[in-house]
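Students often ask what a holo structure prediction actually looks like on paper. The answer is less mysterious than it sounds. You provide the chain, you provide the ligand, and the output is a string of C-alpha cells encoding the 3D arrangement of the protein together with flavin-adenine dinucleotide.
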Amino acid sequence: MIRREALKKMTLAMGGALSATTISAVLTHCSSKNSFPLSGELKFFTEDQFQVISVIADRIVPATDTAGAIEVGCPAFVDLMLFDCYEKDNQDKFINGLNVFQSEIDSETGSDALSLKSDKLEAFLTDYEIKIDSADNRKDEEFFLRTLKELTLLGYFTSKEGATMALRYVPVPGKYEACKEMEDERAWAL
Amino acid sequence: MYFNSDGKKDHTFDAIVIGSGISGGWAAKELTEKGLKVLLLDRGKPLEHPEYPTAFKNPWEFEHRGRITVEQRRTHEYVSRDYPYSEHNESFWFKDADAPYDEVKRFDWFRPDIVGGKSIMWGRQSYRWGDIDFEANAKDGHGIDWPIRYKDIAPWYDYVEKFAGISGQKEGLAVLPDGEFLPPMEMNCVEKEVKKRIESSFSGRKMTIGRVANLTEAKPGRTKCNYRNLCSRGCPFGAYFSSNSSTIPAALETGNLTIRPRSIVSSLIYDDENGKATGVQVIDSETMETTEFFSKIIFVNGSTLGSTFILLNSISKRFPNGFGNDSGQLGHNLMDHHFRTGANGTYEGFEDQYYFGRRANGIYIPRYRNLNGEKRDYVRGFGYQGRGGRGNWSSMIREKGFGADFKDKLTKVGKWSFGIGAFGECLPYYENQVTLDHDKKDKWGLPALKFDAEFKENENKMRVDMMNDAAEMLEAAGLKNVRTYDAGCYPGMAIHEMGTARMGKDPKTSVLNKWNQVHTAKNVFVTDGACMTSSACQNPSLTYMALTARAADHAVNELKKQNI
Ligand SMILES: Cc1cc2nc3c(=O)[nH]c(=O)nc-3n(C[C@H](O)[C@H](O)[C@H](O)COP(=O)(O)OP(=O)(O)OC[C@H]3O[C@@H](n4cnc5c(N)ncnc54)[C@H](O)[C@@H]3O)c2cc1C
Ligand code: SF4
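The corresponding C-alpha cells follow.
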C-alpha cells in the first residue's frame, strides 16, 4: 500500500491541516491494531463503533493509487448520515446489525475487526456479505452492511478526491458528444 | 422591479397575474409587451436570475451529498415522497407543514416556494398536442368536447416555441405535430441502434430525440446549453426555459412589470353591481398583513390546484360555490398522467464507446396505440420517455465485493443499458375532485384542499400495455436482461395535474370558454393546467404556454374593444 502517496493526497484534500496524531494514526495503520483519527465530534457512533466502521470502510474503498475512504473522511460522513437521514427504527437496525457482526467476527476469527490483518478482514467481509445475503433471517446484518457500503461509496465518489481523481469530473462540459472512442476507462463522476 | 410602496393608488394596475410559474410568466410577458401595467403576484420567495444558490456547487459541497434529512422529511411530508425534492434545490420547495392537506385518497402535490414556480424545477420536455388529442373527448364520449382544435392553437405553439427555444427533430407525425425547433440533440450509440431496430420491427412506431426546452443555439441574454444536467437548481446561463431566465426578464424590459413575492392571493374580489372581478385579496406570507390590489383583468396562474384553490375560496353573493362555478364543475375532473411503468435492459457491444457531457434530455416514443382504427381494451394511449447510457458507481452500488478490485471496478465505466417508461393519458372523471376543508386551516388561516382522486379501470388496463410493449420493444431492439417494472402510481406523482376548471363550449358543463375566460366573469382568465378538458399523454406545459399567449392576446383585444 502506498501510504505516503495517500498521505500526501490527504494533506492536499484537507488543505494541509493535518495534526501530528492524525499523521501517526495513518502511518501506523498497517501495524498490529488499527486506529482511526476522529476529525470532530461523533453524532451517532460511540468511539469504538467509529473505529469498527472505519476499518470496514477502509476495506470497501482502500487507498490505492488514489485516496481511499479514510482519507476522504467517509467514516465521519457515515456517522453524520446515520444521525441526520435515518429514522430511529433504521438506526436501531443498523446498530443491531453492527453488534451481531462484531460478535460473529470475534467468534469466527478469534479476533476483533480492528486487530485482523487487512487481507483477513477483507476475506471475512467478502464471505460474510454473501452469507447474510442468502439467509433470510439476517435482515439487520444485511441492512447494516448494505447501508455502510452505500454510504461509504456515496461519500467517496462524491468527495473531491473520489470525483476528480478516482473518477473524471467535468463541472461544465460545454458540449455534448454522443459517441466517442473511449480514451480513459474511468467513468464520469456525474 | 419589486413592489415597495403602499399608497392606495399604487394598488391599481391594468392587469394582475397570480403566479409567476410557467404560465404566469407568459401572461406577464405578453400583457406587459402589449403595453399593460401588470402586477405579478407570487406566494414564493424571490429568486432572481442568475443568482441560483446551488447552481455551481460541487457534489462535495453538499453536506448530505444530495440526500434529505429526517427532519426535512417531517416538514416536507408530501414533496419528500419522490425524487424532485433533494438537498440540491431544497429551498425551492414549499414547506408542507405550513399547509397540510387532506388525502381521502393519496395525492402527491409538489408545491414550489419561489418566484418562477415550477418553471425552475421542471423536466423541460415539450410536446405539442395534436388533433387526436383535442378531438378525443368528442370521439369516445368521455368528458366534454374541447372548445378548440389544433388549428386554433398551432400558431401559438409556433409563437411560444420561438421564444422559449425548444430543441427537437421534425418527424412529420400527426400524433405529435412538429414545431419551430432548434437543432436536435444527438442520440448516443446505443440509442441510435435501438431506434433503428424498434422502427424496423414495429411499423408505425418512431423513436425521436426528446423535444426539450434547452437551447442548442443561443438566444438574446441566454447562452446555449453547457450540458451540465443540473437544471433543477436553476441555470445561470439561462440555457433552459424558465420564467426567471426568459419571460420575467422580457416583461421587466418593458418597464411595465411589478413583481411582488411572498404575496398569497386568498381570493378574487367580485363586484356584484357590474358583474366583474375587480381585484384580489393578498396575505403577506411573512407579516400576515392583508392587502387588496385592483385591476381591469386578472390572470389566474397559480398552477392547476393553486388556481382552483383561489377560485373555490372566492365566495360572493353571485358565486356562493366558488368563483364562476355555476356549472358545479370547479374542482372536478382532476387528471394527472400515470407513469412509473416500463422496462429496461442491458446492451452488449459498443464497449469502447462513451460520450462526453451530460445531456439533460432523453428520447421519446410518441403514442402509437388506438390509432388508425386499432381498438385496445382501453381508450386513448401513452408515449414513452427513456434513455441509454453507461453505468457508473451509482448503478453498481449494490454490487458485492470489497477491496482494491472492487474499488477499481466501481471507478470504471459500466455496461450500456437502455430503458423506457410510459406516460399514459388519464380520463376526466367527474368524481375525481378537490374540495375545501374549512375545518383544517393552514398557517395563514386559509382552508386546506381535500383530495379525492384515483386512477381507474381504463388507466389500469392501459398500464398492462405500457409495461409489456416496453419489454417487447426492448427485446426486439436486441437488449439483454430485459426487465419490466410497475412501481405503482398515484395521482399527482407525474406533476401534470390538470382539469379542475375546464374549458368548454357550454357554461352549464364547464368553467372556462374557448379563450380561457370564466364564462360568467369574462375579465378573469385561467390559463394554467386547470383549464384542460382532457389530459392527452404528452407533457402539458408547452400547451399551457400556448394557451396563455393566445388568451393574453384575446384579453388585450377585448380590453381595447371595451368588451371586458
Ligand atoms: C420535477 C418536475 C419535472 C417536470 N417535468 C415536466 C416536463 O418535462 N414537461 C412538462 O411539460 N412539465 C413538467 N413538469 C410540470 C411543470 O412544471 C408544470 O406543468 C408547470 O410548471 C405548470 O405551470 P404553472 O404556471 O401552471 O404552475 P407553476 O409553474 O407551478 O407556477 C405557479 C406559481 O403560482 C404561485 N402560486 C400558487 N398559488 C398562489 C397564490 N394563492 N397566490 C400567489 N401565488 C400563488 C406559486 O408559488 C408558483 O410560483 C415538471 C414538474 C416538476 C416539478
Ligand atoms: S444542462 Fe444546460 S440548461 Fe441545464 S443547467 Fe446545464 S447549461 Fe443549464
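The CA atoms of residues 125 and 212 of chain B lie 5 Å apart.
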